[in-house]
Amino acid sequence: IYVPVLTIDGPSGSGKGTIAHRVAARLGFHVLDSGALYRLLGAAAKRHAVSIDNEPALEVLAAHLDVQFTADANGDAIIMLEGEDVSLEIRTEEAGRAASQVAVLPRVRNALLARQQAFRESPGLVADGRDMGTVVFPHADLKVFLTASAEARAERRYKQLLEKGFDASLAALIDDIRARDTRDMERSIAPLKPAEGALVLDSTDLGIEAVVQRVIDAARAAP
Ligand code: C5P
């Protein structure tokens, strides 16, 4: 039987993760958080004392990455690396930086390709990342590119950090987001850009539910 795929790509802080999970819940589909795989690889490199620019060693690590995606009683994602819960560890700014560094290596991306495609299981998949519609699932049934201004994305992150009791600087977060955007968009392999035929949504002035509804409507209208 045919297994549909819906891709949601976009820069960090655009709300992709939240949107992907809500759309998947509405449709009863599985979710692939591809950014988590790059974050997990960064964490695995740290554990195994592999340097973040050692491409051959990272390729081997990526091919054998021992990870498990589960959920707790509330349905929140739990991510295990080598049997250990790293759900919080991989969400730090440091882990995000390591992820975007290993993500520029072609052999690493290639080693993670089949693993990402294996998430396509019945009844369907919502895949969230940077190159889901351009590289990993080029024949996806619906491709969405979700953006928001750097200021709006930094502000969301700022609020999240304050809620968690962390200290934060909005100006530093804006700089950080711009730097990450540049790295993701200007890399030669699988750069961040809208896939051909992608539905481009700007969430700067749209609430989460409004974005979810537009994606669901587009998915229902897709051929
Ligand atoms: O989406 P998230 O912020 O978790 O991704 C972390 C980093 O992993 C991104 O900044 C990007 O460099 C990389 N990534 C990627 N391709 C994907 C998903 C994430 O290169 N499909």
Automatic annotation (TrEMBL):
UniProt keyword annotations, A-Z: ATP-binding, Cytoplasm, Kinase, Nucleotide-binding, Transferase
Gene Ontology biological process terms, A to Z: nucleobase-containing small molecule interconversion; pyrimidine nucleotide metabolic process
EC number: 2.7.4.25
Pfam families, A to Z: Cytidylate_kin
Cellular component GO terms held in the UniProt record: cytosol
Coiled coil: none
Gene3D superfamilies recorded: P-loop containing nucleotide triphosphate hydrolases
Keyword Transport annotated: no
Source domain of life: Bacteria
Catalyzed chemical reaction(s): CMP + ATP = CDP + ADP; dCMP + ATP = dCDP + ADP
Segments forming domain Cytidylate kinase: 7-219
Class of the enzyme per the UniProt entry, highest EC level: transferase
Annotated binding of ATP, by residue: G10, P11, S12, G13, S14, G15, K16, G17, T18
Main location: cytoplasm
Matching InterPro entries: Cytidylate_kin (IPR003136), Cytidylate_kinase_dom (IPR011994), P-loop_NTPase (IPR027417)
Localization (cell): Cytoplasm
Protein family per UniProt: Belongs to the cytidylate kinase family. Type 1 subfamily.
Protein name per the record: Cytidylate kinase
Gene label: cmk
